[in-house]
């Protein structure tokens, strides 16, 4: 099923079906080139990961950012993710981290 999701996932914001408020947030963020910390929550299949990827790609149009994605429920727990984040913080490149399926 994962391959199907990746095959049909929207790759441009014009193909993303979401609320006008969310689309306006996307456009404003891309225009200003400022990425705040955001938390997207909701039921499975509502577009949270797709929106995060579109936002990261929209901001990364000139490859200024390192974009990394982790499935926090599968990637051996928070310790691994914390160590990875420490590695990125020492780089001279701004980083966008997408943490998917975080369990609180």
UniProtKB/TrEMBL annotation:
GO terms for biological process: DNA repair; DNA-templated DNA replication. It comes from the Eukaryota. InterPro entries: ATPase_AAA_core, DNA_Rep/Repair_Clamp_Loader, P-loop_NTPase. One of its GO terms (molecular function) is DNA clamp loader activity. GO terms for cellular component: DNA replication factor C complex. Belongs to the activator 1 small subunits family. This is RFCS. It comes from Hepatospora eriocheir. The gene is RFCS.
């Amino acid at each position: 099923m994962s391959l199907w999701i990746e095959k049909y996932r929207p790759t441009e914001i014009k193909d993303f079906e979401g609320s006008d408020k969310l689309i306006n947030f996307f456009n404003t963020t891309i225009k200003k080139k400022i990425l705040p910390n955001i938390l997207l929550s909701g039921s499975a299949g509502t577009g949270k990961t797709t929106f995060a990827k579109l936002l990261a790609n929209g901001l990364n149009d000139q490859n200024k950012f390192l974009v990394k994605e982790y499935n926090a429920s599968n990637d051996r727990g928070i310790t691994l993710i914390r160590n990875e984040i420490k590695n990125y913080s020492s780089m001279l490149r701004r980083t966008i981290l997408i943490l998917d399926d975080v369990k609180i």
